[in-house]
Amino acid sequence: MSQSPAFVLNVLETPEDPEGSQEPSPYDESEVHDSFHQLIQEQSRWVAEEGLELQQRQPGTGALGASGSDHETLLGPEGAPVYSMATLRILASMPSRTIGRSRGAIISQYYSRTVKLRRRAGRPQLRDMGRSARPSLRLYDLELDSAVLEEEEKRGLLVKELQGLTAAQRDHMLRGMPLSLAEKRSLREESRPPRGKRGAQRRRGLLSCCDQLRDSCVLASHNLGLALLSGLQALMPWRYALKRIGGRFGSSVLSYFLFLKTLLAFNALLLLPLLAFIVGVQAAFPPAPAGPVPTFTGLELLTGGGYFTHSVMYYGYYSNATLNQPCASPLNGSQCAPEAGSLPYNMPLAYLFTLGAAFFITCITLVYSMSRSFGESYRVGSTSGVHAITVFCSWDYKVTQRWAIRLQHDNIRTQLKELLAEWQSRQRPRSACGRLQRVAVLGLVWLLCLGTTLGCTLAVYTFSELMIESPVSAEREAVLLLLPLVVCLLNLGAPYLFRILAALERHDSPVLEVYVAICRNLILKMVTLGILCYHWLGRRVGTLKDQCWENFVGQELYRLMVMDFIFMLLDTLLGELVWRLFSEKQLKRKGKPEFDIAGNVLELIYGQTLTWLGVLFSPLLPAMQIIKLLLLFYLKKASLMANCQAPRRPWKASHMSTVFVSLLCFPSFLGAAVFLCYAVWQVKPSSTCGPFRTLDTMYEAGKVWVRRLEKAGPRVSWLPWVHRYLVEDTFPIYLVSALLLAVIYLNIQVVKGQRKVICLLKEQISNEGEDKIFLINKLQRVYERKERSRAGRTEEAMTPPALFTDDWGAQ
Fold first, then answer.
1. What Rg do the C-alpha atoms of the chain give, in angstroms?
2. Inter-residue contact 313 to 620 (CB < 8 Å)
3. CA distance 482 to 467
4. What are the pLDDT digits (tens) for 73-116?
5. Bridge-partner residues for 75, per DSSP?
């Protein structure tokens, strides 16, 4: 028959405590955070003061740990150390496991805050408090656990302190507590004053008319602020559409639409000063037409000529006069003389300075966007292990609607897929032979791609020379569409060839694959635009001496933009819709094509570069770009939802927006700025049209204005000095550039220093963790030796009666 387990009843001796036996509360931060050694002493004393303890004595063995000395900590089923109850209590009472992590600690922490807040305002009298707020012995249950009693006591104290606050302070305090909504709602209900008291206060007229009016105004302003905030959120363009795209297709596809939205903002910022200071002013004071204005036929929407030539669309329409009243420009090219006493508006000066200011604002905005994007993507000290944060901290508990819950669920799921795919891509090592084979394949593919780019460049150059040798009359303007047609065909066909060649490379990382495709397409488009810029400023200016070559360049850029939009529509229809239908009907495939991020992003950068190149010759070109981007967003969104699928290999586009803005800034904006600076400083304007028709260069408009200011009088004499020493002199430009480079260098050094400090702090945190583990193990060994000595004393106390019984039986 099995024997029942024997239990030994141990009564622990309570050591004398000269300082008092009451232990400090673990919720008191000032007591807990003093030192780890003091915490061990307090918890050891607390364990020694406990009451009765039952220990199970296994038959056939001695006391716990009677054999052996100083053994290591026992291991659990998964290799984790198994500590005693006293050690676990110490671990549970550590500051890192109490403050901010348990419900009782949170309640205690906010109770302390409400006490401080109430002491500032003054304690309310006891007779003004309700019965539920007064202390009562019924709140205490002596049979409950001490931790539960302490938590309930803290909760009751918190409720009483909340009742002593005003309604606004109470709501603000409850709103900031890191508790669940149910717990906050319960605390709010318990801390409300009784209804009878509130009714008595109203009857006694405690709230005056001024107080009621003030409360009503505060409440109305609060509601108005909430309504305006929700309205501003609703006015954000494509807010819900972007959330749907990010949740369904991931951050890689979402980065394209975010970049499109950024381009829309840049064009709006560029268009506003042009409309205010150039287009609007010239439309208010239109010049007299030099000849008959052709009628609108509809072909101008494609060619950009005809009726548009005699409108504010192009450079040639703007006069070189000071605008104060309608004035016909003389045929000999002289300027109109302003009437005496009128306020003149110098159109050449306004044209030049407005374009310069608009480009300067765009440059500052681009640099700020790029630096901000770099700061968000490459944070100092940011860790790559964000899986736990995504799993446990991504859900928004304020979401209540079903469609929003589904959208957030899809978004988090896609983020987890991207994180796991990025983590798996780092775990694939390659052998030496595999690396050599990969380098050979990459070299061959790059040679083929560069050869294709060279062939496209030669084709564009040859066709542009043929267009110069065969001039086109005004009646055959449709022939001028041939050069934009050839350029767009090459820009559309070459990326497909690059995509076929990229299939041979088999990149492990989808991010690297996208970056390589962007680099190849960027080389193709930038070289093509370089050939076209040489064609316009190097060849066309010489062949169009007696004509308005600025209008021709503006029309060429307009035709390129229109043809680019048409080919993007065809690519969307043929490359996505028709291919999906063909694969589903003929090839019997269920998979849809993926969204080409590299090609579509480069199309956006290419179109924006055309806009910046042509803004000098066509001030309304940013408006055309805005219309194009709006149509393109809805077209791409509809095609994406209907014809495309999520990437087969999910990947996280954490740095993609930064790369897009960087490419937009350096090759695109910088190249356009160099092109326009060359046109303003070096190329002679046309003598028959435009605001600079009587000058050798466009830049001379500033010099003419300075000479007029010098003759105007001493009141404006500082303006010529500013122009001479800050604009014409190159030393301030070099000085500002040197200061900018110095600031950038210092910023880089500061970032490097911060990274080193962060690495040292991480190492220190790791060492602190090892120190804690060492102290815990030491504490565990001390406790085990104490248990062994206690068990030995117990056996010694029980051994003499047994020996005496045996001796008596022997006699």
1. 40
2. yes
3. 9
4. 444 544 556 666 666 666 666 655 544 445 555 666 666 666 65
5. 81
